[in-house]
Write a structure and sequence with these properties.
The structure holds two protein chains of two kinds. By secondary structure, chain A is mainly β. Chain A is built from no helices and twelve strands. By secondary structure, chain B is mostly beta strands. In chain B, a hairpin with a 2-residue loop joins strand 5 and strand 6. Classes of the chains: A mainly beta, B mainly beta. The interface between A and B is medium-sized, with 21 and 22 residues.
């Protein structure tokens, strides 16, 4: 069974500062993808960043980057230069290329941006 | 690209009534997923379809829930009869052919269901 754990229910950061959201996961597969989704108050699920497990290089999308530690099964999200629009729930998710096509989500971290 | 379309956005109904949620996936996407989001259980996969065929419905909570995908551009999730514990946000998501396009799922805006 696949599991995704987000141990920080809530985080806050000062505007323009950097914040890191934690995520650990467990899977017996070697070929999988990891995602961070953002859910603002509008409740729309928006993909922030994606990491293929076979790639050693950490993914980066503008102010968003990940620290992917495959051996430790850790996948943290770093948000640089935090902006008010970054306030949202952030979900870490795992997808395996084999077996069922289930996207397994963590319980989420609510990020607050302090002006 | 209009994205995944769900209707209605909000539904309020009384216990015992039938509820039908609708989803139009992104054109050309081969897979469609129904999720339920609650405070207690987070995001749960209910069922998914590949090429209009239900593949895994193990997440459907009970026989009161059913889902159909009569064609590539339309799917429904039906609850009959509805109960207050069904109150949640229901998301539909679609994904292109995973071999060609990777594995990102594109989510609709969700339907907030309230059963009184």
């Amino acid at each position: 069974a696949q599991t995704v754990t987000q141990s920080q229910p809530e985080m806050s950061v000062q505007e323009a500062e950097t914040v890191t959201l934690s995520c650990t996961y467990d899977t017996s597969e070697s070929d999988y993808y990891l995602f961070w989704y953002k859910q603002p108050p509008s409740r729309q699920m928006i993909l922030v960043i994606r990491q293929e497990a076979y790639k050693q290089q950490n993914a980066t999308e503008n102010r968003f980057s990940v620290n992917f530690q495959k051996a430790a099964k850790s996948f943290s999200l770093k948000i640089s230069d935090s902006q008010l629009g970054d306030a949202a729930m952030y979900f870490c998710a795992l997808f395996s290329n084999f077996g069922n096509e289930k996207l397994t989500f963590g319980t989420g971290t609510r990020l607050t941006i302090i002006p | 690209d209009a994205g995944v379309i769900q209707s209605p956005r909000h539904e309020v109904t009384e216990m015992g009534q039938e509820v039908t949620l609708r989803c139009k996936p992104i054109s050309g996407h081969n897979s469609l997923f129904w999720y339920r989001q609650t405070m207690m259980r987070g995001l749960e996969l209910l069922i998914y379809f590949n090429n209009n065929v239900p593949i895994d419905d193990s997440g459907m909570p009970e026989d009161r829930f059913s889902a159909k995908m009569p064609n590539a551009s339309f799917s429904t999730l039906k609850i009959q009869p509805s109960e207050p514990r069904d109150s949640a946000v229901y998301f539909c998501a679609s994904r292109p052919n995973r071999v060609l396009k990777g594995n990102e799922q594109f989510f609709g805006p969700g339907t907030r269901l309230t059963v009184l």
